[in-house]
Write a structure and sequence with these properties.
14 strands, mainly beta
């Protein structure tokens, strides 16, 4: 969650009636694609925000908008921008933005949001953290039960190497193309996956490695981790 809801610099999108929430459950009608970026750092922030639509079946990523960001020191400094890039900078007053029907149609997505999801990222341009992704939020534009998701088979395995407290686990797309949503790793071993519930592009990325870490001074039980390792994703339950 540190790279999403709890990030020090957070960017996300919703509608004018929502605050600190996801995009609307139905991306249609007059709901405007309003986005915001918030700085909770004690220092000023300079960087950019990017809004993309991910086409679930094809694996294509369409960047639909971006804006340059300069925010004074936080906490709680908020500025607004439009998802489709009609505003090239952020504003202290909410701008008038295109609605989600227009945004989805222009990107070649279904107008009900059932075949695309939105990603909103904030990237730093400050000298000490240049190029660092400060936050990356995945937003649903329709209820999950309406999604058109490709059939994908994932395989997870424990890799060699790592320390006794941190073990790399690799997830591979072994069958299918497109996006696997909310990829979830679990195991009976004591510890936690530092990244979980992520999106995997089986066209471009094909593989992702996450770290399984134990919170105490004891080492990870790699045998139990490997024997009980399980990987799931949203399409399996629709």
């Amino acid at each position: 969650m540190e790279g999403t809801a709890y990030a020090d610099v957070l960017a996300s999108c919703g509608i004018d009636q929502m605050v600190m929430s996801d995009a609307p459950s139905q991306a249609s009608g007059s709901n405007s694609g309003l986005c915001y970026v918030r700085n909770d750092l004690r220092d000023a922030f300079t960087g950019s925000v990017t809004v993309s639509l991910l086409k679930l079946s094809s694996g294509e990523r369409v960047d639909i908008g971006s804006a340059q960001v300069t925010l004074p020191a936080g906490a709680g400094v908020v500025r607004f921008f439009c998802a489709d890039g009609t505003t090239q900078a952020v504003h202290s007053v909410k701008p008038n933005c295109s609605n989600y029907t227009t945004i989805l149609g222009n990107a070649g997505c279904a107008l009900n949001g059932s075949d695309c999801i939105m990603q909103v990222s904030a990237t730093s341009a400050t000298p000490l953290e240049y190029g660092k992704v400060m936050s990356n939020n995945t937003l649903l534009l329709a209820p999950p039960h309406t999604f058109t998701l490709p059939h994908i088979t994932l395989t997870a395995s424990v890799e060699k190497g790592g320390t006794g407290l941190a073990v790399p686990v690799t997830v591979v797309c072994s069958e299918g193309t497109g996006y696997a949503l909310y990829v979830w790793l679990s195991s009976l071993a004591q510890g936690r996956f530092l990244t979980n519930g992520f999106v995997l592009n089986c066209v471009a990325e094909e593989m992702v490695t996450v770290i399984f870490s134990f919170l105490s001074a004891d080492v990870v039980d790699k045998n139990l981790l490997a024997s009980s390792l399980r990987v799931e994703h949203l399409q399996q339950y629709l």
